[in-house]
Amino acid sequence: MAYQQPPGQFYPLRPLAPARTAAAAATVWAPAAAALATSRLPPADVTATGPATAAASRTPAEAAPAAPPATSPAASPRLPPQQQQQQQQLQHPPQQAAVSPTDNGAFPGGTYSISHRDTNAVLALTLQQGASVKSKSGAMIHMSSTIQLQGKIKFSMKKLITGSDLSESTYVGPGRVAVGPTLFGDIITLHVDGRTNWTIGKDSFLASTIEVKRETKAQGISKALFSGEDLFVYRLTGQGIIWLTSFGAVDRLDLQPGEQHIVDNGHLVAWSCQYAIERAGGGGGSALNSLKSGEGLVCRFTGPGSIYIQTRNRSEFESFIKGFAGGGGGGGILGAL
Hints:
Elements: H1 18-38, H2 43-47, H3 51-57, H4 60-63, H5 81-91, E1 103-107, E2 110-115, E3 122-127, E4 132-136, E5 140-143, E6 148-153, H6 157-162, E7 167-172, E8 175-179, E9 187-192, E10 199-200, E11 205-209, E12 213-218, H7 221-226, E13 232-237, E14 240-245, E15 250-255, E16 260-264, E17 268-271, E18 274-279, H8 287-293, E19 297-302, E20 305-310, H9 314-324, H10 332-336
Antiparallel strand pairs: 1-2, 2-3, 3-8, 4-7, 4-11, 5-8, 6-7, 9-14, 10-13, 10-17, 11-14, 12-13, 15-20, 16-19, 17-20, 18-19
Region (Disordered): 39-113
Family: Belongs to the AIM24 family.
Pfam family, one: AIM24
C-alpha cells in the first residue's frame, strides 16, 4: 500500500519495491498507450519533445520551405518581321570565314602544303619517285638535291604575239621543292575537273600538276583595256590542280544563277562566270567615254560561277612605286599620294 501524504505536511517517500513499481507503471501507461494506438496523429507529433525531434521526424518534402508562387513574365510587344530579323542578326551575327593558316592536300604522286599565308605564302611540294609538277620560270625557292629540274622553252609566234610565258620549269621527284610568287601575296589551290570553264589572268599562274593545260584566249578590246587584264588570258583545260598567286589576300565569291556582283578593275585572279565592263555607279555609256570623262570602270559578273578576287591592285601599286622613286611628277611619297 502506498504512502499517503496529509495536506500541508511533507514526508520523504520511500521507493517502492521493483515488482510494485512495474505494476504501477503498467497501470499508469496502459490507458495512454491505448489512446495513442487509436489516435490519427503521427507518433512523431505525439512523442516529440522539442523542435529538433519534430523537424527530424518530417519528410524532406515537408521540411523544405514552400516555393514562392511562379509569376509569368510580362509579354513583350510583338515586333514587325523586319525588326525581328534585325534583332536575331544582332543576337546571332554571321560568322566570317577565315583563311586557314595552312592548306594541305595530295595529288597523284605527291603532296602539297601552303604556309606563311596570306601575304608571304610559300608552296611546298613533296614528290614521289618519277612524279613531276611544273611552275613558272624563276619561282623556285629551294629544293632537295634529288629533284631533277628541267627547263623547257616553248617558243611559238602565238606565244610571242600574245605575251604568254615562253618557258617553264618542271620538277621530277623524288624530293621536295618550294616555290613562291614574285610579289607578296597569297597562294590558292584550284581543282580543275574539266567541266568548269575557269579563266585566269596571265600573272596568276604559279604552278600546276602536269595534266593541267593553259590555253591562250583573246578577250574583247574593252575588257583588255579596262578590266585590268591583258587582251589575252588563260583558259584552263584538263584535270588536276593548279596553284594561283595574288597580290595581297584572296576572297572567293560564289554566285547563284542570275546573281550579279561588281568587282573593281585590276582585282581579278580567276573566274568561271561571264562579266561585262561598265561605268562605275551605272548610268550606261561606253568605256571610252568613261575614260575620257575620268570616271571609274568596274566589272559586272553574272552567275552562276565563282570569282577569285585579290585585295590589292598591282597597277596602282606600280604607279605608287614610280611616284615614290621620283618618276611620277612630284616625286617622293607626297608626290605619289
